[in-house]
Amino acid sequence: MIISITNFNIGGQMKMTQANIIFANDSWVINNKQITQFVKDSAGSFSTLIDEDGLVIVIKEIEEKKLTYDQVRMTAGAIARELSKRKIEKATIDGQLLSDSFSTLDSEAGAVLTAFVEGWNLGNYQFLTYKSKETAFATELQVTNVEDLDLIEAGEIRAEAMAFSRDLMNEIPNVLNPETFPTMLVDKFAETDVDVKVFGKDELEKMEMNGILTVGRGSKYAPSLVELHYCGDETKPLVSLVGKGVTFDTGGISLKGSRDLSDMRMDMGGAAAVAGAMQLLAKAKAKVNVVALIQIVENMPDNLSLLPGEVIRYKNGHTVQVGNTDAEGRLILADGLIRAGELNAEYIVNIATLTGAIANALGSKLAGVFGDEQLSLELKAIGDVNGDFVWPMPLVDAYESYLKSDYADFSNISSKAEAGAITAALFLRRFVPENSKWLHVDMAGVMESQEAGYYAKSATGFGARLLADFTEHVSK
Ligand code: BES
Ligand code: ZN
Ligand code: ZN
Which long-range contacts (CB under 8 A, 24 or more apart) does 108-114 make? Predict the structure, then answer.
């Protein structure tokens, strides 16, 4: 029972190491009108109260038409962060009550519970490697009244995969660079069903991966291509996930402006997304056949650097004039797309922090998806459920001419100051192998978040869930 606010008496015996999570829509739980109103009026998705047993978290009722799985994740994440900040050791929730409270949503039995656990674990995410005075603390979630423990494990696996992507993106560029990143991936997947192949500079030369080699020329770290293979069912179509892995983007000789460029360490967000997706698929023992291709470089100005005006000759015969060395992502992804073709991938999804223009167009909550129109819609539907939101964008043929070059087949930048995300996508389309179905996800706008729900003020880990769920979707 909850003690009414007016009669409230702080007892010396109260244990504040434990919290119970309940729901405002359970009239039998909250039968005090004053408290019901108090909960309704409080800001945010839940209220924190105290009764004789300790803390009580009351989850506010959500209007049926506004209720989404992501709201469940956001609520869980916010509660987890609040309780962890208060150093509460354990919180308990009734699994059956949770499902019942969001029953209009639970089309797939138990998906609400998975979403809650996922949001909870992500809400506890912190990147503390370089905080010398802080130690990690996470309130443990105990779910009672559940039969299918796989539902909880599914949430844990999803959160863990996304946290892996976040860790990679948050890591600092002197620690995560083109020479250490491949080793981190080798170590991470060592005891798993994922095979890791690392192609170093010499091999890249033999493979004519000239985009990666050219962009990586100015860095003290040799570039590489990492392939991660996971085959849970060889009869399934081969899906290739191609991720941009620029461990730091200074712009190169076309140097970026003088603002704080710290977030350009996250220019390997596409690589982090595909690595997270591989972890998710492997841990879930998904029946899919997937290869991730990660192009890893550091984009630096140097006396050896790529110069504007140079021409890159690609393995598929295309020659590209480099109009701007800061449009480096598309130059390395081109090699990844060519490689996906060599491996006969039926589906190719590339993902990259590619253009500032996509952030201008869609803001920080949605990524843009280009390519096969039907598949784009399917990807949007997947993101609407799993929280990695995307919006379909057009490949406008009339803008193809903007990529004209005077002396090469085409340029890596547009001749016009408009539609920057679209022209980048049109550039990539020229490298898509003929027989594959292709999508391009531009996640530049969504790579970082503010503290809210299950997001911390850090990298988002966007894309791990999206790519994993897409891979399963086309493998049904
Ligand atoms: N990595 C950047 C894009 C980016 C910008 C990611 C902001 C995250 C936040 C990319 O390599 C880049 O510099 N793109 C240029 C392209 C331009 C030179 C055609 C851009 O968007 O300005
Ligand atoms: Zn750039
Ligand atoms: Zn970049």
Answer: 110/148, 110/151, 111/69, 111/151, 112/69, 112/72, 113/143, 113/146, 113/151, 113/152, 113/155, 114/151, 114/152, 114/154, 114/155, 114/158
